[in-house]
Amino acid sequence: MIVAGSLANGFGSGGAFLASPDDATEEMSRTRSGTMFFSGPIHPAQLGAAIAAAPIHLSPELAQRQRQLVERITLANQLLAEA
């Protein structure tokens, strides 16, 4: 199984990733479908954002940030409704 994902939304950057179960599958993906997956190199700023976001996604901090985001969205919606 190959897992593909985007770094654009949750990581606030750009690009994508592929995770393969073994070296042979990874090699097949790289050599036979590169143009389908990779249209160009990731920009340095996007790479930096993805690298910085990865540890947050693997830590308890992610849940805290998600709660704060929901609270801020709720407050914004309330203030907009009042206005």
Listing every helix as H and every strand as E from the N terminus to the C terminus, the arrangement reads EEHHHH
Please tally the β strands and state the result.
2
Q: Gap between N and C termini, in Å?
A: 50 Å
Shape: elongated
Parts with pLDDT < 50 across at least 5 consecutive residues: none
Instruction: Provide the residue-averaged pLDDT.
Output: 82
Share of residues in helices: 55-70%
User: How are the strands ordered across the major sheet?
Assistant: 1-2
Structural class: mainly alpha
* Largest sheet: number of strands, sense, barrel closure: 2 strands, antiparallel
Rg from alpha-carbon coordinates:
18 Å
Q: Tell me what portion of residues adopts beta-strand conformation.
A: 5-15%
**SS summary, helix count:** 4
* Count of spatially separate domains: 1
Q: Layout of SSEs?
A:
Elements (H helix, E strand, L loop, with lengths): L2 E4 L9 E4 L3 H10 L1 H4 L6 H14 L3 H22 L1
Antiparallel strand pairs: 1-2
Brief sketch in words of this structure:
The chain is mainly α.
3D structure, described in words:
It is built from four helices and two strands; from the N terminus they run E-E-H-H-H-H. The protein is mostly helical. The protein has one domain (3-82). It has a two-stranded antiparallel sheet with strand order 1-2. The longest helix has 22 residues, at 61-82. The radius of gyration is 18 Å and the shape is elongated.
